[in-house]
Amino acid sequence: MDKLRAIHYFNRSAETGSFASAARSLDVSTPAVTQLVASLEAHIGVALFYRSNRGISLTADGERYYEVSRAVADELHDIEQHLSARGAKLRGTLTVGMRSAVGENCVMPRIARFLSRFPDIELVTKLVETLEDLDKQDFDVAVMAGWPPKGEFVVRPLAQTRHIICASPEYWIQEGQPDAPEALRNHHCLVFRGAAGTLLDRWSFEKNGERRTVDVRSRLLIEHRAWIDEAVCASAGVIRVPDLTVGRYLLSGLLVPALTDWEALESPTIYAVYRRAQRRSRLVRVFLDFLVEVFTELEGERPLAPGESVRRMSKPEWFGRAHGRTSAYVPRKRKSAL
User: Fold this and answer.
1) pLDDT tens profile 185-244
2) In a 3-state reduction of DSSP, which class is residue 114?
3) β-strands 202-207, 239-242: how paired?
């Protein structure tokens, strides 16, 4: 048994909440993860995970093992990065594309760490909003938010976001916080236009198995994410955005969340994507390691209740089909078999 690899697979399984998610993030098969974790449990002599149809969760022994193994893995990673920066002297130019919100709120506030580790790498960053942009421009790797594509690109999931409903404290004082999703119809909601040009004005929620959908009204339709952040902080209305991209606004008190007892659906995945020809690029690899570190930290800072987890969202039914407003999208009924 490759014990270091087994510990790595165990840690990632604990962090993602499932063997399948861990396998996707590691770019290996699910059986490879489950078998190696099982071998680790057999070697130690205790069960590290509870397994059920709903997923996996750490046992008491698993929690203790994870606490130590995560610390050891982090220390080993830091040593390797330090030695790599000093010994390998990676050189060259790396071109990175990023969705605006992900770059501005997640990656760039921590980019000094990467530049310090690899002083001989020249980093060129560009704005990229759609996968079509990858074909039009020359990127080594891109950091996207949405639902990962299938096909010619290699995809590395980084984090699952949660949609959060929020507004400025002044707005809530003036208009009052909604106590149910339907109450959003009485608020000024700021509607964002997605990368494909669709206005995301249909917001869905779920609590205790009950699902509710609200078509919000808006007089302010925004394409650029930075503009919607400025508008909501200026008390222009209510927004629905991925939580990992507004953490600094929440911590500073500029924005206050609402409807926290409801789960806002259709939240995107943050992922890295690159062409298969880049799989052996050392520059791409070290930047991917940096991204994993960044989003592991961001997920660790997310406020969660004991036992609460963030579930992976499936691709919305309207994705790639709706034009104009999502509220105007009417899914086609499937033909029944004769």
Assistant:
1) 999 999 987 766 778 889 999 999 999 999 998 888 887 888 999 999 999 999 999 999
2) helix
3) unpaired
Give the global pTM.
0.68
* Inter-axis angle of helices 30-44 and 3-16, nearest 10: 110
Using DSSP, state whether 90 is helix, strand or coil: coil
Query: Beta strands of 15-87 (E only): which ranges?
Result: 49-52, 55-58
Q: How far apart, in Å, are the Cα atoms of 211 and each of 112, 260, 305?
A: 43, 15, 21
Three-state SS string over 282-321 comes to HHHHHHHHHHHHHHHHHHHHCCCCCCCCCCCCCCCCCCCC
8-59 confidence digits (pLDDT tens): 899 889 888 889 888 887 878 888 899 899 999 999 899 999 998 878 999 9
Domains of the chain: 3-75 (1.10.10.10), 86-158+268-301 (3.40.190.10), 163-265+311-328 (3.40.190.290)
